[in-house]
Specification:
Layout (H helix, E strand, L loop, with lengths): L8 H7 L3 E6 L2 E5 L1 H7 L18 H18 L1 E9 L5 E10 L8 E8 L12 H11 L4 H8 L3 H15 L4 H9 L5
Antiparallel strand pairs: 1-2, 1-5, 3-4, 4-5
Helix pairs in contact: 4-6, 4-7, 5-6
Length: about 190
Protein backbone atom coordinates (compact mmCIF):
# COMPACT_ATOMS: atom_id res chain seq x y z
CA UNK A 1 0.00 0.00 0.00
CA UNK A 2 1.30 3.44 -0.98
CA UNK A 3 1.16 6.31 1.44
CA UNK A 4 1.24 9.79 0.00
CA UNK A 5 2.82 12.35 2.27
CA UNK A 6 1.93 15.26 0.08
CA UNK A 7 -0.23 15.56 -2.99
CA UNK A 8 0.75 18.28 -5.43
CA UNK A 9 -2.70 19.37 -6.63
CA UNK A 10 -1.30 22.09 -8.89
CA UNK A 11 0.75 19.50 -10.83
CA UNK A 12 -2.25 17.19 -11.05
CA UNK A 13 -4.37 20.04 -12.42
CA UNK A 14 -1.70 21.17 -14.91
CA UNK A 15 -0.93 17.65 -16.20
CA UNK A 16 -4.50 16.29 -16.34
CA UNK A 17 -5.23 14.70 -19.74
CA UNK A 18 -8.46 16.71 -20.09
CA UNK A 19 -8.69 20.46 -20.66
CA UNK A 20 -9.59 22.09 -17.34
CA UNK A 21 -10.06 25.61 -16.05
CA UNK A 22 -11.40 27.60 -13.15
CA UNK A 23 -13.61 30.57 -13.99
CA UNK A 24 -14.89 33.70 -12.33
CA UNK A 25 -17.72 35.62 -13.98
CA UNK A 26 -17.10 33.78 -17.27
CA UNK A 27 -13.41 34.70 -17.31
CA UNK A 28 -10.61 32.13 -17.08
CA UNK A 29 -8.77 32.39 -13.76
CA UNK A 30 -6.64 29.27 -14.18
CA UNK A 31 -6.18 26.91 -17.13
CA UNK A 32 -4.24 23.70 -17.45
CA UNK A 33 -1.79 22.74 -20.20
CA UNK A 34 -4.30 20.48 -22.01
CA UNK A 35 -6.83 23.34 -22.31
CA UNK A 36 -4.21 25.74 -23.67
CA UNK A 37 -3.04 23.14 -26.22
CA UNK A 38 -6.61 22.23 -27.25
CA UNK A 39 -7.51 25.83 -28.00
CA UNK A 40 -4.10 26.69 -29.45
CA UNK A 41 -2.91 29.14 -26.84
CA UNK A 42 0.49 29.25 -25.12
CA UNK A 43 0.71 28.34 -21.44
CA UNK A 44 -0.99 30.95 -19.28
CA UNK A 45 -2.15 32.96 -22.33
CA UNK A 46 -5.81 32.18 -21.53
CA UNK A 47 -5.59 33.56 -17.99
CA UNK A 48 -7.85 36.58 -17.60
CA UNK A 49 -9.58 36.08 -20.96
CA UNK A 50 -13.34 35.90 -21.32
CA UNK A 51 -14.79 32.56 -22.42
CA UNK A 52 -16.21 34.55 -25.35
CA UNK A 53 -12.81 34.12 -27.06
CA UNK A 54 -13.51 30.39 -27.27
CA UNK A 55 -16.93 30.69 -28.94
CA UNK A 56 -17.62 30.99 -32.68
CA UNK A 57 -19.58 34.22 -32.08
CA UNK A 58 -20.52 36.67 -29.33
CA UNK A 59 -24.18 35.67 -29.78
CA UNK A 60 -23.38 32.01 -29.09
CA UNK A 61 -21.40 33.00 -26.00
CA UNK A 62 -24.27 35.12 -24.64
CA UNK A 63 -27.01 32.61 -25.46
CA UNK A 64 -25.05 29.73 -23.94
CA UNK A 65 -24.45 31.71 -20.75
CA UNK A 66 -28.15 32.55 -20.48
CA UNK A 67 -29.16 28.96 -21.17
CA UNK A 68 -26.83 27.31 -18.66
CA UNK A 69 -27.25 29.75 -15.75
CA UNK A 70 -30.66 28.44 -14.59
CA UNK A 71 -29.45 24.84 -14.88
CA UNK A 72 -26.28 25.57 -12.90
CA UNK A 73 -28.29 27.46 -10.28
CA UNK A 74 -30.78 24.57 -9.95
CA UNK A 75 -28.43 21.57 -10.10
CA UNK A 76 -24.92 22.92 -9.60
CA UNK A 77 -23.61 21.23 -12.74
CA UNK A 78 -23.98 21.38 -16.50
CA UNK A 79 -22.79 19.44 -19.54
CA UNK A 80 -23.27 19.59 -23.26
CA UNK A 81 -21.56 19.22 -26.61
CA UNK A 82 -21.04 22.43 -28.51
CA UNK A 83 -18.95 23.98 -31.22
CA UNK A 84 -16.00 25.98 -29.91
CA UNK A 85 -13.26 28.05 -31.59
CA UNK A 86 -9.49 27.66 -31.45
CA UNK A 87 -7.04 30.58 -31.48
CA UNK A 88 -6.50 30.01 -35.24
CA UNK A 89 -10.31 30.42 -35.75
CA UNK A 90 -10.84 26.70 -36.49
CA UNK A 91 -14.23 25.48 -35.22
CA UNK A 92 -14.47 22.11 -33.47
CA UNK A 93 -16.94 20.04 -31.45
CA UNK A 94 -16.24 19.98 -27.73
CA UNK A 95 -17.79 18.14 -24.78
CA UNK A 96 -18.05 20.67 -21.93
CA UNK A 97 -18.80 19.87 -18.29
CA UNK A 98 -18.96 22.39 -15.51
CA UNK A 99 -19.76 22.83 -11.85
CA UNK A 100 -20.78 26.05 -10.16
CA UNK A 101 -18.83 26.67 -6.98
CA UNK A 102 -21.33 29.20 -5.65
CA UNK A 103 -24.86 27.77 -5.65
CA UNK A 104 -26.83 31.01 -5.91
CA UNK A 105 -24.70 32.59 -8.67
CA UNK A 106 -23.98 30.21 -11.56
CA UNK A 107 -21.25 32.29 -13.17
CA UNK A 108 -19.55 33.61 -10.01
CA UNK A 109 -17.01 30.77 -9.79
CA UNK A 110 -16.84 27.48 -11.64
CA UNK A 111 -14.67 24.58 -12.64
CA UNK A 112 -14.90 23.34 -16.23
CA UNK A 113 -13.58 20.47 -18.31
CA UNK A 114 -13.30 20.43 -22.09
CA UNK A 115 -12.86 17.36 -24.30
CA UNK A 116 -11.96 17.83 -27.97
CA UNK A 117 -14.30 15.71 -30.12
CA UNK A 118 -12.85 16.75 -33.48
CA UNK A 119 -11.37 13.29 -34.11
CA UNK A 120 -14.92 11.89 -34.00
CA UNK A 121 -17.05 14.79 -35.27
CA UNK A 122 -16.40 17.42 -37.88
CA UNK A 123 -17.98 20.85 -38.08
CA UNK A 124 -20.07 21.79 -41.10
CA UNK A 125 -18.79 25.28 -41.88
CA UNK A 126 -21.91 26.17 -43.91
CA UNK A 127 -24.10 26.34 -40.79
CA UNK A 128 -25.14 29.63 -39.20
CA UNK A 129 -24.65 30.29 -35.49
CA UNK A 130 -28.30 29.45 -34.73
CA UNK A 131 -28.11 26.30 -36.87
CA UNK A 132 -24.99 25.19 -34.96
CA UNK A 133 -26.80 25.77 -31.68
CA UNK A 134 -29.88 23.82 -32.78
CA UNK A 135 -27.64 21.08 -34.26
CA UNK A 136 -25.93 20.60 -30.91
CA UNK A 137 -29.29 20.21 -29.15
CA UNK A 138 -30.62 17.86 -31.84
CA UNK A 139 -27.45 15.77 -31.48
CA UNK A 140 -28.22 15.50 -27.75
CA UNK A 141 -31.57 13.96 -28.69
CA UNK A 142 -33.76 16.90 -27.73
CA UNK A 143 -37.14 17.32 -29.41
CA UNK A 144 -38.20 20.49 -31.20
CA UNK A 145 -40.38 21.45 -28.22
CA UNK A 146 -37.47 20.96 -25.80
CA UNK A 147 -35.15 22.97 -28.04
CA UNK A 148 -37.76 25.73 -28.36
CA UNK A 149 -38.04 25.95 -24.55
CA UNK A 150 -34.25 25.83 -24.20
CA UNK A 151 -33.65 28.63 -26.70
CA UNK A 152 -36.82 30.64 -26.04
CA UNK A 153 -38.08 30.10 -29.57
CA UNK A 154 -41.37 28.81 -30.90
CA UNK A 155 -41.50 25.10 -31.81
CA UNK A 156 -42.44 26.21 -35.34
CA UNK A 157 -39.20 28.22 -35.62
CA UNK A 158 -37.19 25.20 -34.48
CA UNK A 159 -38.98 23.07 -37.10
CA UNK A 160 -38.05 25.63 -39.77
CA UNK A 161 -34.40 25.40 -38.71
CA UNK A 162 -34.61 21.61 -38.69
CA UNK A 163 -35.95 21.68 -42.27
CA UNK A 164 -33.11 24.04 -43.31
CA UNK A 165 -30.58 21.70 -41.69
CA UNK A 166 -32.05 18.70 -43.49
CA UNK A 167 -31.83 20.52 -46.82
CA UNK A 168 -28.27 21.78 -46.23
CA UNK A 169 -27.04 18.37 -45.13
CA UNK A 170 -29.04 16.37 -47.68
CA UNK A 171 -30.90 14.36 -45.03
CA UNK A 172 -34.24 12.75 -45.86
CA UNK A 173 -35.24 11.73 -42.31
CA UNK A 174 -34.72 12.85 -38.72
CA UNK A 175 -32.42 9.90 -38.00
CA UNK A 176 -30.34 10.60 -41.10
CA UNK A 177 -30.06 14.24 -40.00
CA UNK A 178 -28.78 13.17 -36.57
CA UNK A 179 -26.26 10.81 -38.18
CA UNK A 180 -25.01 13.59 -40.45
CA UNK A 181 -24.80 16.03 -37.55
CA UNK A 182 -22.83 13.59 -35.44
CA UNK A 183 -20.54 12.45 -38.27
CA UNK A 184 -19.05 9.88 -35.98
CA UNK A 185 -15.88 8.43 -37.43
CA UNK A 186 -15.43 4.69 -37.49
CA UNK A 187 -12.62 3.73 -35.13
Amino acid sequence: MHTFHSIDYESIFQLAPLGMCVSQNRRIVSANLALCAMFGYRDEELIGLSFSMLYPSQDEFERTGSRIAPILNATGSYRDERIMKRANQELFWCHVTGRALQQDDAHAFGIWTFEDLSAKRSVNKALTAREREISALLAEGQTSKQIARHLTLSPRTVEMYRAKLMKKLGATSASELINKLLRISAE
